[in-house]
User: Fold this.
Amino acid sequence: MNFVVAIDGPAASGKGTITRKLADELELTVLPTGDTYRCLGLEVLKKGYGIDQVYEITELARQLDIQLRNVNGKELVYLNGEDVSNEIREPAISKLSSLVSSIVKVREQMVLLQRRMAEGKNVIAEGRDMGTVVFPNADVKLYIDANEEVRADRRYKEYLSNGINITYEEVLEQLRWRDENDKNKKVGALKKADDAILIDTTVMTIDEAVEKIKSEIQPKMVKKKSKESKSEYNEDDFDM
Ligand code: DC
Assistant:
């Protein structure tokens, strides 16, 4: 079976946490596509490229070597064989990842990479254009949102617990900038797919959201599985 759940939404909407909980409970592979842009942002920073060096950045995107590994229950991101899980969460990389993701040629490469990473797996993919561009035929599409202050507060607490020195006002300002940039891209802009279910985590706890989404996904998984096993059975019949 190749089952795909596509989750989109703005930064700190709760989609990362919700995705991981659902993945655990439904045995799906997590595909955090923001991490692919974050890795590219880190590469650009290390090479010292300016954001206008479109050719060089697109080449980097083409050659990106990313591996997602689960080590002792921790989800780690490896870039060119090196663990970059913490580095890619730095505020400077958040901004750079949004900037590189605005380059149309970069997005073409990233869409190919993300589809390759999902090949042959049952996945839950989260990002900004999962339901609209990368997996337009996903089995379930969700758009997770929350108001600006709630999202800024969540990200601020996350930074503090990771020892990052930043004020709430700075976080709110960065979030506003990123929302604006992510929603106004020429290609792959953040928007709700017409057939996506809207979940607002301003008024719902993460666990409530998980339960609601699970009730949407589970029947579809069961239906797809039984449909596929029936068609396998028919093929065997035909072989005889
Ligand atoms: O989900 P995140 O905050 O880790 O994503 C980092 C940036 O990457 C985000 O500001 C926009 C970009 N991004 C994107 O353009 N498309 C995606 N599918 C995922 C992320």
User: Anything to note?
Assistant: The pocket of 2'-deoxycytidine-5'-monophosphate is lined by residues 11, 33-34, 37-38, 97-98, 101, 127-129, 178, 182, 188 (CB under 6 Å). The chain has nine helices and eight strands. The two ends are 24 Å apart (CA to CA).
